[in-house]
Design brief:
The complex is composed of two ATP-binding proteins (CysA), two transmembrane proteins (CysT and CysW) and a solute-binding protein (CysP). The chain is built from 13 helices and no strands. 29% of the residues are buried.
Length: 282
């Protein structure tokens, strides 16, 4: 056997690629292709009439706007929570670490009912917020809170392993050279965490934009106010308007894919920039 030949545990490239493409086609591409084929039965004018209706456009703005906002909030506070769990020891640390995964295991309908019980007008928190003019349930703010709740674990669990592997000697070296805390975070820590942070942001956004169960209870589903796009698709299906439902689904797919592609491209750019910067430093 040639010494230059690389030993591979898994099968060769062609066989592995074949399995990958076949699995991807069966699980992802065929269902998505069926959605596009069903939508293709509409003419361009009919398609535009369905997807540009004022009520449907309002659901786009709410779903994508709140999903981006929730992902951004989770990126900030998820990083802070991951930092506390990795860098500090405190009573109840393991309990909090376990509670972070609760949105993964909790049925989404249960989460929606629990949030509604908290923030409704007569809820535990709502009864104090509403007299102050802060209405959460049945408003976009309630949708935002639900999406933050279900998206937080994605950021924490993505950033946490990177923080655990981050050598604290780099921070100590920066401090010994006179760097302030913000300078150390900005120039030493953030470049290392940014690719993982963007990945967590993308995962939280992807989960939020298609979320249904935890949102419909607290949103109240008021047209033009708190109605989300997944609910509009369900409404079309209940009306046996399958082409209308798939047309709205196609818009969600295209916009979500474009946003995720942009985020992934930014993640790849930051990762390559970090490696280039490290190479220059050396």
């Amino acid at each position: 056997m040639s010494a230059s030949r690389t030993f591979r545990v898994l099968p060769g490239f062609r066989l592995t690629l074949g399995y990958t493409l076949a699995y991807l086609s069966l699980i992802v591409l065929l269902p998505l292709g069926a959605v596009f084929l069903k939508t293709a039965t509409l003419s361009l004018a009919e398609f535009w009439t369905v997807v540009s209706a004022p009520r449907v456009v309002a659901t786009y703005k709410l779903s994508f706007g709140m999903s981006l906002a929730a992902a951004a909030i989770n990126a900030v506070f998820g990083l802070m929570l991951a930092w506390a769990l990795v860098r500090y020891a405190f009573p109840g640390k393991h309990l909090i670490d376990a509670l972070i995964d609760l949105p993964f295991a909790l049925p989404t309908a249960v989460a929606g009912i629990a949030l509604t019980a908290l923030y409704a007008k007569n809820g535990w928190l709502g009864q104090y917020l509403e007299p102050q003019g802060i209405q959460v349930a049945f408003r976009p703010l309630g949708v935002l809170i639900a999406l933050v709740f279900i998206g937080l674990p994605f950021v924490v669990r993505t950033v946490q392993p990177i923080l655990e592997d981050l050598d604290t000697e780099l921070e100590e070296a920066a401090a010994s050279l006179g760097a302030h805390r913000w300078q150390t975070f900005r120039h030493v820590i953030l470049p290392v965490l940014l690719p993982a942070l963007l990945t967590g942001f993308a995962l939280a956004f992807a989960r939020a934009v298609g979320e249904y169960g935890s949102v419909i209870f607290i949103a109240g589903n008021i047209p033009m106010v708190s109605e989300i796009t997944p609910l509009m698709i369900i409404t079309k299906l209940e009306q046996y308007d399958y082409t209308g439902a798939t047309a709205i689904a196609v818009v969600m797919l295209v916009v979500s894919f474009a946003l995720l592609l942009l985020i992934n491209s930014l993640q790849a750019w930051t990762a390559s920039s970090g490696k280039t910067g490290t190479g220059r430093d050396r």
